[in-house]
Every structure is written in structure tokens, then in C-alpha cells.
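Internal tracking record. Fields below are filled automatically when a chain is submitted to the structure queue. Please do not edit lines marked as system-generated. If the sequence contains nonstandard residues, flag them in the REMARKS field before resubmitting.
Queue: standard
Priority: normal
Entity type: single polypeptide chain
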Amino acid sequence: MSNLQQGWITIDTVIKDYLDESEQSNHKYFKCFNLAFRGMEQLGLDFFYNIKSVKLPVNSNKTVELPLDYVNYTKVGVFNDIGEVIPLIFNSKLTTFADLFPDRFDKITDNTLYNYYSPQNAIFYNYYNGAGYGNIYGLPSGSPFVGNFKIDAKNSLILLNDRFYYDYIILEYIASPTEGEEYFVPVQFREALLAYIAWRDIANVPSSRKGNLGDKRDRRHEFYNERRLAQARFRPFYLDAAYELNLESQRLTVKA
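SYSTEM-GENERATED OUTPUT FOLLOWS
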């Protein structure tokens, strides 16, 4: 795969550029790889981590095990008949109690309380009008209802409600960095990322060994300056927007 694709550059290319410029061997690659991803966080680019989509089986107690490289979810759902992902509804009320037990629902349900809830339409019947209960809030009647979910990050599980009847879920998530995989960032951030690696490479090394205090200070200053320039340059350009801007400019010229 090309290192540069339509305005994007790989992290691997940035690291190798730094190693070449600083005349260091490849044994420093792993250190620079970790520095590069810390730099992405400092540049606000951590959302460019890999987005993965996986189909995961549902356990008998209505839980799903999260992937080992899971950082955060972007979508949880199931497929419809045309290949779209129909999302589940996040439900903060689902409890994480006993979610490691096979008889999870036996431990968390209380049949002495009546639940005025329609799982088919996801409507809470919470208003008594004198003759019966009606809904005041919730999804409109007839809206598709797939199920509820909640993330138990401590135990690396997705919790599902007891009425979820599919045997799988589709999880789209941000994956943690893995050495050897390709990660792309906008080319405008190349110099800023290079400057961050150069700064942090010597930031915690004793001055007597490599780099004096002035050098560390200069590299820090260089990073923040390059970050400012990169953020100023990173503005997506669309031809239709430029066309509209040109027409507006012509109209203003004619009026003048």
C-alpha cells in the first residue's frame, strides 16, 4: 500500500523520516512508534486510530466479550435485510451486577415490581389518564426496537437486555494501536508529528547523555509551533464550496 494516498500519510513513514534525519538505527523504532501515538493524542488525532467492525457471538447470559484491542465503541447493532447496521439503544439503567455469572438474569430481576414497558416499540407507559396508562416520552409508536446495551469496561463486556433474541451483534469500535498495522493521518500534520517525536525522544534523557536543556526547550517550542501551523492548514477543501464562494464574489463585484 502506498505511503501517501490522497493527502494522507502513514505513521510508519513519519517514524522512518525521523530515524533517517536523526541518523538513528531501526532499534529505536518501537520507542518512536509509541511516541507517535502519544503525539496523535496531543494533536487531537486519536480519532484516526483504526476503526474496526466485527461480528461477535452473544453468550447465554446475554453478554458479549469485547475485543482485546477495544478502546471505545462507535456503533452496536445488528444487520437488516439490506446490509445496514440497526443500532441498539444505550441503556444506562442496565446493571453490571452478576454479569460474569451464567444465571445473570436470575440474580438481577425482581418479579415483585411491574414494568410498564413495551419492548416492541420502546415506549415507557408512565402516565395514568384515569382509564389506562399512556406514553409521555420515548420513541414514537411503531419505531423499530432491537434491544438495549451497556458497556462494562471493567469486565470487558457488552451487556444486553433479556429480550434481545439475536445470537450475534455487530460492533464497530476504535481499536488501540498495534505495531505493524498501518495508520494514516492528514499530511498537514507530518511536520508536527515529527517535531513531537524529536522532542519526546530526548525529553527525559539526562542532559549529560543526549541533548542539553536548551535543545529540549527548542524542540518543545518547535512542536507547539508546528502544531499551530498544522491545525491552521487542516481545513477540508471542497470544489462545490469554492464554486459557491466564486459565484458570491462575482455577485458582489456586479453590485459594486
